Amino acid sequence: MNLNILVKAILCLYLSMLLHTVCAQPLKPGDAIPDRVWHLPLTVVNHPASKSSVTLNDFKGKPILLDFWATWCGSCITGFPKINTLQRKFGNRVTILSVTYEDAAVIQRFFTEKVGKHHTYIQTVINDTVLKQHFPHTGVPHIVWIDAAGKVINTTLSDELTEQNITAIIENKKPEMATKKDVSRKRPLFLSEDFPEDLPLLHYTIFFNGYYPGLPSGNKIRKNKAGKVYGRQVTNSPIMSLIYPVAYELFQQNGESFSNNRTVLNNLKQPELLNLIPKKGGGYESGNLYSYELVVPENKTDSLYHYMLADINKYSPYKVWIEKRPVKCLALIRTSDIDKIKSKGGSAQNTFPYQSPSVVINQPVANLLLKLNDQPAFRLPIIDETAYSGNIDITINNARDISNLKKELQRYGLDLVEVERELNMLVISDY
């Protein structure tokens, strides 16, 4: 009989949680936390009193900060020491509770291996399926601020986790915080939700400077049913993250492969602004970040990257173009008539240049040079002057050292020699 009662109780609890999950409504600043959320059991690890579950009600009556994170999020993990410092400073006047959707196995492995074993002071809810529905977000870290009265104050990035802001909510004052409102990247950025999905979008572009908290850093490609790219999106990234996709595509249209060493910085006053600039204490400067998106009609997909280049030249602080220039480069040549590189066949492999030894198996010479040219250590462009048309097999030890690479190539009747050639180069100058 007791077993039946227990089974019924568990079933009722399961149905209650299932119903709650289905009915969970997103909460926004100004909303009060519903009673059912206060009493929802949450599985936790690293609880200071070794509890296996808590409820938000355990912390009611003081500010609660929910720190949504994931084990794959580097900035989440680098922020743990700051969370620990702030929690220790404010003690029981505030609760900072981390929350992750990841399950017990993943979290246990994280806190016992590598970097995670240094952060076992982080009390975290695991296997969350409900809180993230009440506080939806697409990127982490994502901080939800709840005041002592149980109302949502704001949602922010972890940058806003400061002594000043926490003190303000403890003292029931309005903190100065930038709101993080996530934007879906599935639709064109900031396009009104009233725009009908079935209405053809003939042209759309947006380009702005500065960091937007509700967007991740990265890029997105839009393809039609035939696989043709008709839209490109780059968000919260430096200008080179916008220039490089254009260069790769335009070089390819010319039958060439683009690499970093095919770039010429034409007397730029502040070349460091082209790329990410680390901040002291972690993170990156935001003043040189951009977000951009372009969508073109599907009958103009071949012109997409030309339009992107035109937008860069019209609206960014830089002028970018491609031109032939005489440049010093390294030419891969054959030094012997004996064919020592002919492939024996088999499955194609290319582990250049990170593994040692690195191998190229049953692939063309161009694939070898593509990997080598992407290495920052190889300052000069490497070009193919072997006139070898078949696939090759080679094994190289320490391929990331240029002098050793030359020595290893000589075993195969190959060499790298410095020459001057006219090559297409990507040129970037101040506007």
Description:
With 431 residues, the chain is of the alpha+beta class. It has three domains: 151 residues, 3-Layer(aba) Sandwich (Glutaredoxin), CATH 3.40.30; 113 residues, no CATH class; 105 residues, no CATH class. It is built from eleven helices and 18 strands. The strands form four sheets. It has a seven-stranded mixed β-sheet with strand order 2-1-5-4-3-6-7, with no helix packed on it. Strands 8-12-10-9 form a four-stranded antiparallel β-sheet. Strands 11-18-13-16 form a four-stranded mixed β-sheet, with helices on both faces. Helix 5 links the parallel strand 4 and strand 5. Helix 8 runs antiparallel to helix 9. The protein is globular and about 80 Å long. The protein starts with a helix and ends with a strand. About 4% of the residues have low confidence.
